[in-house]
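Explain this record to help learners:
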Amino acid sequence: MKMWSGRFRQPLDPHFEEWQRSFPFDQKLLRYELAASRAHAQALKAAGIVTPAEFGLIATALEEIGKTSEQQAGYFDDPEAEDVHHFVEKKLVALIGETGKKLHSGRSRNEQIATDLRLFVRVSVDNLRTLLGDLLEALLDRAGEVKTLVMPAYTHLQRAEPVLTAHWLLAYFEMLFRDGERLLECRERANECPLGSGAVTGATLPLDRELVSRALGFARPTANSMDATSDRDFAVELVNSLSLLGIHLSRWAEEFILFATQEYAFITLPEPYSTGSSAMPQKQNPDALELIRGKSARIIGNQMALLTAIKGLPLAYNKDLQETQEPLFESVATAGHCLKVAAGFMRQVKFNQDRMKAACETGFMNAMAAATYLARRGVPFRQAHEIVAKAVQKCVVQDCELEQLTLEELREFSPAFDADVYEHLTVENVLACHDVPGGTAAHRVQQALKAAREKLATMQEAHGTHA
């Protein structure tokens, strides 16, 4: 029997009945439905709607449903269950009879699904932040290992200046750390309890909403019943945050894909995260990275699906909201897999030090340092820029680097050049001249690495308070 069938005389069209069921995918919310149901039963007991003995029966049966679902294969094989709420009610009645039917007093599926999804988002954020913490830790561990390793920094995909590899890795740390902060902010806004909102205008029984909220670990009850039953901002916000996380992971993956090519050869792909070609025996392909890059598109697509699903909905609950569940579930799962693979890859990738340093010694990557040298000797920087640009032109004609020009040749462009200029043009000194907070000078990078470890520790401590 349907939970709503009393008013109807004709059965549902069989195709429509099967098509409108959400149980095939919302069954993953069972643990949250059971927790929310127990909290609601507590409120019913406090309101005198169920006796303490009946509450005991309900609580024990809910616990048994949870245990059996984990242990019994095929437990969810119920072609009649419309959704996870219907499934739990059926199981409850089968276990304790008519008492099980009392549980739905004073509540609606509209508030149930809103509550279940908020609980899902809360746990998902905690799990994702754990996985993100693993990746951030891997980035910091590798940055700590490659303290003196240099590589080219790029703008417009053209070599720009040398940079410490640790500095490059810390750029991704900062990017992904912001994602962790966004996830935490999302969790905080989702942490309100809709139970007690009823179908649209509030519960019809004097239920203690604060009691229910505390029982489920929420910060507070929701403020408005119409908003609570129709709100999916928390789902949209989580998928929005995961979209940006996916974009950051995609950028990270793209650089490693490029650097793994023979044209760059800055890294060697770890075999456990690579595949071969069925046609070309020599190939080692960066499939793990390519999948991360590709799967970010799925999350972005889910973001658009969620926004489109709710953009024209009048208050309050509409069946359209059922369509917000699968994009949310898939985005969380996809992001989790991407983070796990990225952390494993990061721990095993090999950096090719000689190749990376050699790339820093060609292509006039010390030109900025040469202009800075002149600026420190009183030459206006705009003029110094022009002087060095002309010196580069001469190098292009002579097929040499700036440091290979003689002092006499350099002085053709400016008398401010002196013999000590060559000291300023080495890779080490080019790095060292960027001696500002956030710069790539070696001791600044070590400061940044220390600060990053402190930030990660704070993030992990904050996560511990929610676990």
The radius of gyration is 30 Å. The chain has a mean pLDDT of 95.
